[in-house]
Write a structure and sequence with these properties.
By secondary structure, the chain is α+β, with helices and mostly antiparallel strands. It is built from eight helices and 23 strands. It has two domains: 26-148; 186-437, 3-Layer(aba) Sandwich (Rossmann fold), CATH 3.40.50. Helix 7 packs across helix 8 (406-420).
Length: 440
């Protein structure tokens, strides 16, 4: 049999696509001035690159105190002369007054641009402008830009930007630990354990570092989840020289979940499909180097087969995710550009975590790309994996309203990864099947 196209030299193609890093809800303070030297103080609540808002407080010429809010998304680009890369908070809504606007005054939306600095390898020069034409002459460097630690924020500080009875104010008080949250223990939590299984191609010459970063992030994320839920946690990792189908199957064989446990399986590596593949889910390429997949499938397995193995083990909730390509070439797209880094906060609404992990029963399968598509990754992780963590964090944040469901998280994951891939060579459309009932 000829080598599969996945192992052509073109495998390690670097694409000039960019995407934002996705982390949990982050808080920042930005102080800036306009062209008349009027002073403004902004409080930025950043969920992910498509979901952020800022409250801006200022005194007008009549010394009246005002607060406005604008919704934002992150946009990446290069200056018109092609000399500087930037990421920008671009408005997705017009400013609205939170305080009483007795004079019917207008507020023009502010844009915030971080310019990339080669010396530091980060977006760390922050400017603002209210010029929608983005004339560089109207850029002003901000006075200060400060990441905020939620546990150090006081209620008087929040009241500079929020009305007391606002839901957003209430949510932030809980997030910052200003409002105690008490939850009665659930009996089933005493015997519940979260089993995290990660299969990561960390030795791969191109995506290895990306897979390694995701592995570290996933272990941290779900260990914290288990600790927040006060349930057991055990993780299993197949990576490095041990990356093979044999070791994947032997690892799955060592997983013995109880009937109230959760099993979360995540694959990070290359994926492909045979020309005559009838299953919509990708095959996991459990090899590296130039060997190529063998026709007897001894070094690959379909994601659906993994789900079938785990479903038979009797856990209450099984989640199987594949962050990999789903096409005949299996060429994973990589970005060579650094990205804006948001801070991570571990604050989450435990009641929402309970609904997802303790009071839900069923199974989930999802992959980063539908048949015929490539999945993309950066050195800091795969678009799909980062989008999954970001969606989970947002859906379980105090700021999120409405019913919390796994369906919403997977829909959000697919949407976020799709939008990030919009600046790449092609789009990636993830696919999901969710069969979960709640509460259990």
């Amino acid at each position: 049999m000829r080598n599969h196209p996945i192992f052509k030299l073109l495998l390690f193609t670097f694409l000039a696509c960019t995407y934002a890093t996705t982390n949990a809800q982050s808080l920042y303070e930005i102080k800036f001035a306009d062209r008349n030297n009027a002073q403004y103080k902004g409080f930025l609540v950043f969920f992910n690159e498509n979901n952020a808002y800022m409250r801006i407080a200022y005194f007008d010429i009549n010394r009246q105190y005002n607060v406005v809010e604008t919704n934002y998304k992150m946009e990446y680009g290069v200056t018109r002369d092609g000399t500087r890369k930037y990421c920008m908070l671009k408005k997705t809504s017009n400013p609205t007054f939170i305080t009483y606007n007795s004079l019917n005054q207008l507020y023009y939306a502010d844009y915030f641009l971080w310019f990339f600095t080669e010396a530091t390898g980060q977006y760390d020069e922050l400017y603002t402008t209210d010029d929608s034409l983005f004339n560089p002459a109207n850029y002003r460097k901000v006075i200060s830009y400060t990441p905020l630690k939620a546990e150090l924020i006081t209620d008087p500080y929040l009241k500079e930007f929020f009305v007391t009875d606002e839901y957003k104010h209430t949510a932030l008080k809980k997030m910052c630990g200003l409002t105690p949250v008490f939850l009665d223990p659930l009996p089933q939590m005493q015997t519940t354990k979260l089993h995290l299984i990660i299969i990561a191609n960390t030795n791969d010459a191109t995506i290895g570092k990306s897979c390694e970063n995701d592995r570290e992030r996933l272990v941290k994320e779900f260990k914290q989840t288990a600790e927040a839920l006060t349930i057991g946690f055990k993780h299993y990792v197949v990576e490095g020289d041990n990356f093979s189908k044999t070791n994947l199957l032997s690892t799955l064989a060592t997983v013995y979940p109880g009937n109230n446990d959760i099993v979360l399986f995540i694959y990070r590596g290359h994926g492909f499909r045979w020309p005559n593949e009838y299953e919509k889910w990708p095959r996991l390429a459990l090899f590296y180097g130039k060997s190529g997949p063998r026709s007897d499938n001894s070094n690959s397995i379909n994601l659906k087969e993994v789900k079938s193995i785990l479903d038979k083990k009797g856990a209450r909730l099984n989640i199987v995710l594949g962050d990999c390509c789903n096409n005949s070439d299996g060429v994973s797209g990589m970005t060579s550009q650094s990205h804006f880094e948001q801070q991570v906060t571990a604050f989450t609404d435990v009641s929402k975590l309970r609904n997802l992990f303790i009071q839900s029963k069923g199974s989930i399968i999802s992959s980063a790309a539908k048949p015929g598509e490539v999945s993309y990754a950066g050195f800091d992780g795969g678009l799909y994996t980062r989008s999954f963590i970001s969606s989970l964090d947002y859906e379980t944040s105090y700021s999120k309203t409405g019913v919390i469901k796994w369906e919403n998280i997977l829909v959000s994951t697919v949407k976020l990864a799709y939008e990030k891939s919009s600046v790449c060579r092609s789009f990636q459309n993830g696919i999901s099947e969710v069969t979960v009932t709640a509460p259990y």
